[in-house]
Amino acid sequence: MRFDIAKGGSGLTYEIRQIVNIGNKLQALGVDVNWENIGDPVHKGEKIPEWMKNVMIDILKEDMSYAYSPTKGMNETREYLAERVNALGKTKITSEDIIFFNGLGDAIARSYSSIRVDARVIMPEPTYSTHLLAEVLHASFPPNTYRLNPYSNWSPDVRELEQKVRSHKSIVGILVINPDNPTGFVYPQETLKHIVKIAKNYDLFLIFDETYHNIVYNGKTTLALSEIIEDVPGISMKGISKEFPWPGARCGWMEIYNADKDKVFSSYIDAILNQKMSEVCSTTLPQIAIPRMLEHPEYQKYLNTRVRQYEKLSNIAYNILKDVPYIVVNRTNGAFYMSVVFNEAVLNNRQTLHIEQADIRSEIETLVNDQIEYDKRFVYYLLGSTGICVVPLTSFFTSLPGFRMTLLEKDESRFEYIVKIMAEKIVEYIESAK
Q: What topology is assigned to 15-46+300-431 in CATH?
């Protein structure tokens, strides 16, 4: 090419998916891979109930389910969702304040790409890869972050957040993922209100990713953005991928708050919508399904059953891992992920796990020959020696070495077995270089 055409930041990888390529190679060599890398309940064995399938069958008989929707989304669905928001909090919205997208990945990409390149959104560290990639690709520079502290149950450092907001004039927005991915932390209302206050005091807008808002357990509670935002401009991002669950629908939406109170923020929302118009609309069928699913008499019972299952697995994993040396682990209270952190300086490039099969061992040794992060090295050895596929924590833009696993296994005894194997392999790996 005449000159380098790739936009800065394109060297970043989406490790949640990237590691699948390695797992597939090992599967071809005979490894029985247990996929703990991606949050797809259906892939992990979630059975979609018959009542939900029947709702879909009825919708498929309707001609409008095959048509374009309005650019912002199906009018009836947006009116329904606006009513649900208005029943919760003081901040009221209308259907015009809701915009549908082809999954939250689409919403996230468009929300960051509509921001000026010299304006930044500060995000939690570690942070979910899709937000990270979109924010970095829009600006071509590493992100600004505020830390979630694994030594304090993953609580965010709001003092650091405020100090960075004060010091970096390029910061225009704050991202909160609640419940958090990858840590499973659930934000208490005091912390949320503190973050809203920071946004108000420094004239910022808020992005709340509330994908897992209805998946909270272990006695924890939280608040939706609509309940606390007051007159601060903000966006809540929601979807059906995890809650129904229906990840293949690629259906998510933004709820826009207080655009009428800030002309600059209103122009930003218009920029997002103008991008949306270029693709006409989002998928129609899942939009039609949303009110019918949520209002179905079986829905809440079905969701509650799933949430209790995640709670049970979170406690199984925590009780096994909490006393393992060399790591820090916190009980997951929301979403369906758990992040494990290695203690400082316990990892190095000499540690290994025994792999019996020569061709599998050769494949792993080739991967770790490169100068890779120490937690990624552990993840590769774990995959090669046991078939357990997790994601290195440093892939979520943090210097903390560790890994993220899911709580989606349907067979509790198998899940307990997997976590016990992981616990054994952590110790074996760390002590292999002593």
A: Aspartate Aminotransferase, domain 1 (3.90.1150)
Chain centroid to CA 295: 26
What is the Cα gyration radius of the chain? 22
Backbone angles phi, psi at 273, to 5 degrees: -65, -40
φ, ψ of residue 238 to 5 degrees: the values are: -140, 165
Q: Strands, DSSP E only, in 190-325?
A: 205-209, 234-239, 252-257
How far apart CA 100 and CA 73 sit, in angstroms, is 5
Strand partners, 337: 406
SS3 122: strand
What one-character-per-residue DSSP string does 250-307 give? Answer: --EEEEEESGGG-HHHHHHHHHHHHHHHTT----HHHHHHHHHHHTSTTHHHHHHHHH
In eight-state DSSP terms, residue 6 is S
Let me know: does 272 contact 99? Beta carbons within 8 Å. Answer: yes
Residue range(s) occupied by CATH 3.40.640.10 in the chain = 66-294
- Which of 259, 154, 129 has its CA nearest to residue 206? 259
Residues of the chain with CATH 3.90.1150.10: 15-46+300-431
| Residue 137 confidence (pLDDT) | 87
Kindly report, residue by residue over 99-156, the tens digit of the pLDDT: 999 999 999 999 999 999 999 999 999 999 899 999 988 888 889 999 999 999 999 9
Angle made by CA atoms 127, 130, 131, in degrees to the nearest 5: 55
Count of alpha carbons within 13 Å of 371, Cβ hemisphere only?
0
Cα–chain center distance at 9: 20
- Do the beta carbons of residue 334 and residue 220 sit within 8 Å? yes
81 token code pair: 């969702």
Give burial (CB, 10 Å; 0-12/13-18/19+) of 3. Answer: exposed
> How far apart, in Å, are the Cα atoms of 165 and each of 60, 133, 171?
49, 21, 6
> What pTM was computed for the model?
0.94
Query: Tens digit of pLDDT for each residue in 387-409?
Result: 999 999 999 999 999 999 999 99
- From the candidate CATH numbers 3.10.180.10, 3.90.580.10, 3.40.50.150, 3.40.640.10, the one assigned to the domain spanning 66-294: 3.40.640.10
With tokens 């540690």, the residue in question is 351
Length of the chain: 434
